[in-house]
Amino acid sequence: MDLRSLLNNYSIVIIQNNQVVFKSQDSGISPLLKAIDLFKPEKLHGSLVADKVVGKAAALLFALFRPRYVFSIMISKPAVKVLRKHNIEFNYDKLVNYILNRDKTDLCPFEKAVSQIDDPIKAYRVIKETLENLKKSDQNSNQFQRAYDNGAL
Q: In angstroms, rounded to a whole number, what is the distance separating the alpha carbons of residues 127 and 6?
């Protein structure tokens, strides 16, 4: 299976025993978290992963379930360090210093959250916490925007 070509239609694909067991078109780290929560790390052990963007946060999540191989279009230097430390084979098209946020104005919030973390289990908890906080923040800003749009502010 050509992992690169799978990323033409999906942001992440996980293959176990030559069968696609998980795929998503959603961006960000949420699909990877969903896969881990859905299958549990031990069920994904030894899998093949194609993920468009791999930063340190994603690499630490990979270290949780230890895929046999990871392919990424873009990978960060801190992610490479994590994958090497955990003896996870990988390949990529483009190496970058860091993964940026969606606006490209700062580091990705998940990269910031795990910048001082090396333990995959701790990283998993911190990433889930960060995601929940971002969802709450987004809901609050959407409520503010709606109130503003409706003339309430």
A: 26
Residue type, 82: V
| Residues 6, 36: Cα–Cα separation, whole Å | 20
Per-residue pLDDT of 12-32, as tens digits, reads 999 999 999 999 999 999 999
Between CA 34 and CA 13 the distance in angstroms is 12
- Structure confidence by residue, pLDDT tens digits, 49-63: 999 999 999 999 999
**Structural domain spans, the chain:** 3-149
Classified by CATH at the fold level, domain 3-149 comes out as: Cytidine Deaminase; domain 2 (3.40.140)
What residues contact residue 106 under an 8 Å CB cut-off, 6+ apart?
100
3-state SS assignment for residue 68: coil
On whether the CB atoms of residues 115 and 56 are closer than 8 A, the answer is: yes
Instruction: Quote the DSSP letter at residue 9.
Output: T
Instruction: Give Cβ neighbours of residue 52 (< 8 Å, ≥ 6 apart).
Output: 7, 11, 12, 27, 72, 73, 74
